[in-house]
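Internal ticket - ligand job 384, pyridoxal-5'-phosphate:
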Amino acid sequence: MDWRVPLADVKLGAEEESAVLEVLRSGWLTMGAVTQAFESEFAAFTGAKHALAVNNATAALHLACLALGIGPSDEVISPSLTFVATANAIRYTGAKVVFADIESDDWLCICPNAIEAAITERTRAIMVMHYAGFACDMPAIMRIAKERGLAVIEDAAHAVGASFQGKALGTWGDIGCYSFFGNKNMTTAEGGMLTTNDDSLAEKIRLLRSHGMTTLTWDRHQGHASSYDVVALGYNYRIDELRSAIGREQLKKLPAGNARRAALVGRYRAAFSEHAPSLVLPFGESRGNSSQHILPVLLPTGADKQEFRSLLKQDGIQTSFHYPPVHTFEIYNDRSQDFSNSLWMTEHVAKRQVTLPLFPTMTDEQQQLVIESVVSALARIDAS
Ligand SMILES: *Cc1c(COP(=O)(O)O)cnc(C)c1O
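stdout (structure tokens):
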């Protein structure tokens, strides 16, 4: 479709182009010096001791689970209101996903009380997801994890550049996982990163990312090693120099992009509170510095979401839905379990949630089109 306003848009510039060309001409394409530079710049940016680049965030989440020793007979607590990769990464290890509800229809992140209620003797870890780049209640979650001896993995796919109490999201728990997919706040086309402050976790991730081998092709090319041993059942989850080169340029542009997102969100909030008071904009409270990855809104209870979305589509405006709850998907739909109580808020929010366009290069005119279309669609829905 030729949208007048797409949901998201990505524009790379001359900086990314010349960075990629430089790699192409250098004669070294696979994980090497450019990736190392990207990793150390990302570590500095987040304040983490270690940053390890991988081919995507799903691989990062899988490696995080493996490095923490999660496996069959373990349980990991996760939100259901997330992208399916969050839960799949747990399942890859043979562990069971135990879903916990979100805080409220204002704060769409996993709820500390629901986490506590979901803990059993088998629970090994808590997986959190910073929805739209807004912080989960990390002080409470870290307190629970400490008391109960649980690991914490942060799915920070939305949260690059976000922080809470001055601390980057993704660096509160044991391991943070970031995505550089094409529609994220910074992109390498496909790509991801893990951060950790723990030397031994970093070492395990390093091994598992590249076949469990003790040296890399790059080390041997440089003459630093001539052979290798294989000490773990690893994977090929490596990134490459082309993507890392794009990532380094994107990281430089990230703060300006996130600031533009925040300005657009401020304008959306002001316009909707004046002209569309029945529309609920979650994340109204102030809790740190969000990366504003997406703009979720909640329609009035009972409003026809399909009708609303098709009215916007008629105006050339793309919308989305974040997310169909994972527990409702066929492969997660355990019919022996009744989620209507335990995931009540997740289901309540999912019924009403729509995502509106938000991206740094969105023009003021494009935003005005979205605002006008939303206001008129709501008026029509209210009237029907
Ligand atoms: C995008 C996303 C992922 C997966 O990232 P990939 O890099 O595409 O593997 C995981 N979790 C969440 C919440 C995401 O939005």
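Auto-summary: The first helix runs from residue 14 to 26. The chain has a mean pLDDT of 96.
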